[in-house]
Write a structure and sequence with these properties.
Elements (H helix, E strand, L loop, with lengths): L9 H37 L3 E6 L4 E4 L1 H7 L12 H5 L2 H14 L6 E8 L5 E12 L5 E10 L1 H23 L5 E3 L5 E6 L1 H7 L3 H4 L13 H12 L15
Antiparallel strand pairs: 1-2, 1-5, 3-4, 4-5, 6-7
């Protein structure tokens, strides 16, 4: 339904229609952008990795839910605008971190590092970080994107495993029995002998590593020892046996 006199003003009608269509297209594009932003925001807040954006002064400008959890600060307002090192760097390392940050300006080249800190709840955390600069049209760095993975549990397992190893090594070095660990070919593995074994043969742990255990066996018993190693390497149960070895 339109004014019939507009039939004689086709150019005016086309101009008005074009203007209206531009407005509709703009609204459609904005709706698509908003939908994509919501989709991306949902993904970023769902992933367990820490994702954050800081400015060239080191202040948080954006971050996901994982950052809040790792910091121990449940209120976003306590993180937004705060300095990165005030949230994720321990007090002892803070000054060094600030100095490194300012030395990285203005390029802020990509970097990787780990740091240990105590979060706001008093829990010790270890974060593995990776950073990359975000530049504008002129190539100037305007933001730094920092992604991190909370490896606290893995570090704790590594510490526990090391303690178990230290305990096993302490026990092995205390007992008077000879202990030696070799590969399938009879080659002594790194840290594969205990103290009693080293004392008996007059060689250090490093000297024995990589050598064949058969070099220490009396030549008359070499074949028997070789068969025993081959059988054990192939899962054949080995009976207790006696051999003559050549000590220091």
């Amino acid at each position: 339904i339109h004014d019939r006199t507009l039939t004689d003003q086709r150019e005016l009608v086309d101009a008005v229609a074009a203007t209206v269509s531009l407005a509709f297209e703009k609204e459609r594009l904005q709706a698509e952008v908003r939908a994509q932003y919501r989709f991306l925001e949902t993904i970023i807040n769902t992933v367990p990795s820490l994702l954050s954006v800081v400015d060239t002064q080191g202040r948080f400008r954006n971050f996901n839910r994982a950052v809040e959890i790792a910091s121990g600060l449940e209120d976003r307002d306590l993180i937004d605008g705060a300095y990165f090192w005030d949230v994720f760097i321990s007090h002892e390392e803070r000054e060094a971190m600030i100095e490194r940050f300012h030395e990285a300006a203005p390029d802020f080249v990509a970097a990787e590092y780990e740091n240990t800190f105590i979060d706001a709840t008093g829990q010790e955390r270890v974060i593995a970080w990776r950073t990359a600069p975000l530049v504008d049209e002129s190539g100037n760095v305007v933001r730094i994107v920092a992604g991190g993975i909370d490896i606290s549990d893995r570090k704790r397992r590594e510490v526990d495993l090391q303690r178990q190893r230290d305990f096993a090594n302490a026990v092995a070095d205390t007992i008077p029995s000879y202990i030696v660990i070799t590969d399938r070919e009879g080659i002594v593995v790194p840290i594969g002998v205990n103290r009693a074994f080293c004392d008996a043969f007059g060689k250090s742990v490093d000297e024995l590593a990589g050598t064949s255990i058969l070099e220490l066996v009396d030549p008359r018993d070499e074949q028997s020892a070789r068969l025993a190693i081959a059988g054990a390497a192939n899962g054949v149960p080995q009976a207790e046996r006696e051999n003559t070895w050549i000590g220091r």
